[in-house]
Amino acid sequence: MFKRLKSDLRIVFDRDPAARNTFEVLTTYPGVHAVLWYRLAHWLWNVGLKWVARFISTIARWLTGIEIHPAAKIGERFFIDHGMGVVIGETAEIGDDCTLYHGVTLGGTSWQKGKRHPTLGNGVVVGAGAKVLGPIEIGDNARIGSNAVVVKPVSAGKTVVGIPGREVVQKDDDLEKRRAKMAEKIGFDAYGVGQEMADPVEKAIYSLLDHIQVQDEKMDAMAQELEKLGGKRIDTKLPKLDDVVLEPSDPVQAAHLKSE
Fold first, then answer.
1. Which of 100, 110, 146, 219 has the maximum number of C-beta atoms within 10 A of its C-beta?
2. pLDDT digits (tens, 9 = 90+) for 33-82
3. In 3D, which of 122, 24, 145 has the Cα closest to residue 75?
């Protein structure tokens, strides 16, 4: 028991640069308090004292703002940073060396009995506000970006962002450079996703714009060649995006814009 307590405390210093000493962590970190209460409640649940276990988990929720069902299975060196609003469901399973930030939900999508909450592998980081829902598996060392909503399995080592969650694809050399950079700093990706991580939706939009630009250039070149052959001149000039004015449907907003 004391060995696990030391492990839970020691991991805080590895993952939170703000941690200064053991006394401070033990007395002021609600994420640590929630895990300690959970360890006791989980033991009571397993020996058959289920009401007592639920009562202790309720007290822990009042004190920390973190709700962990005593039947959930949580591995070693588990860390909840900040913690307010974290919810971990009854059949959730969490591996070793995982990190959850505030507002994370490991929830279910069904009222049926049985397995209905996610399973996290080892070394998983779930960013602030993310929702991982259903009996899905999140592979080892996966990263769930802030506010992502994940309802499908995630492969090991992948990063997921967006609503619904989508895997971010990176070149191997970029990925290795990024991992080395983060390892130099604090050993893990803060909030589940780095600043240089590309949003897949943004990337797709820019790819479409590039494609449209190439098509416009080809059409302009074709029009010029047709004109050289004696064809009628085709006007291929397109309006700039700055020239396009969208009239708001709200008359109050339209009046406000005209007054400006």
1. 100
2. 999 999 999 999 999 899 999 999 999 999 999 999 999 999 888 888 88
3. 122
**Closest residue by Cα to residue 139 from 169, 125, 83, 196:** 125
Residue 129 · residue 111 · CB < 8 Å: no
CA 34 to chain centre: 21
Amino acid present at 19: A
Q: How far apart are CA 9 and CA 19, in angstroms?
A: 10
Amino acid identity, position 220: D
- pTM (2 d.p.): 0.63
Map out the domains of the chain with their CATH numbers: 2-195 (2.160.10.10), 202-259 (no CATH)
Q: What is the Cα–Cα distance from 75 to 77, expressed in whole angstroms?
A: 7
Percent over 90 (pLDDT), the chain: 23
Measure CA 199 to chain center.
12
Strand order in the sheet with 67-68: 67-68, 87-88, 105-107, 131-133, 149-150
Residue 150 amino acid letter: V
* Long-range own/partner contacts, residues 13-18 (CB < 8 A, 24 or more apart): 14/187, 15/79, 15/81, 15/99, 15/186, 15/187, 15/188, 16/79, 16/81, 17/186
Q: Compute how many other C-beta atoms are within 10 angstroms of the C-beta atom of residue 259.
A: 6
Structure tokens at 6: 């030391």
Which of 239 and 148 is assigned the larger pLDDT? 148
Q: In 10 A of CB 214, how many CB atoms? A: 10
Neighbouring-strand partners of residue 110: none
